[in-house]
Design brief:
This is DoxX-like family protein. InterPro entries: DoxX. Keywords: Membrane, Transmembrane, Transmembrane helix. The chain is an all-alpha fold. The protein has one domain (3-120). Helix 1 (3-29) runs antiparallel to helix 3 and helix 4 (70-94) packs antiparallel against helix 5. It has helices at 3-29, 33-41, 46-63, 70-94, 101-120.
């Protein structure tokens, strides 16, 4: 795949991820009843919802920073994947399989975005230098 196409797919995915998780973060911080009711129904404490909202907004800021903070972006992707996995498993356990559709869609979207990120910024490893 050409680098130009990979970059285009990455930035579209990053924008969609930013919209999805940015909106979610704002809803968590503004106590949107739909988000709060579901999260509380899943058994998470109220303070966790605020922490999650702040983490999502900070992560989106890092994700949208072009050509910088690459190692931190890896952590952001990891955090987003953890969020999706926990949402999926919590909804599956408490609400039922039908409630997991959004988590599955998010997982596919973020997976494609991450794969394009790795194509654009291929990991380079160098041997550790002992002092």
């Amino acid at each position: 795949m050409k680098l130009k196409i990979a970059k285009r797919i990455y930035w579209i995915g990053a924008a969609l991820t930013a919209l999805w998780f940015g909106a979610s973060g704002i809803f968590e911080l503004t106590k949107n009843p739909i988000v709060w009711d579901i999260t509380l129904q899943l058994g998470y404490p109220a303070y966790f919802i605020y922490v999650l909202g702040v983490a999502k907004l900070l992560g989106i800021a890092v994700l949208l920073t072009p050509n910088r903070l690459l190692r931190l972006k890896e952590w952001v992707f990891a955090g987003i994947f953890f969020d999706i996995i926990f949402a999926f498993s919590s909804k599956l356990s408490v609400i039922g399989a039908a409630a997991t559709v959004d988590a599955i869609v998010a997982f596919v979207m973020v997976s494609v975005t991450y794969i394009m990120f790795r194509k654009i910024y291929a990991a380079t490893y160098s041997p550790a230098v002992a002092e």
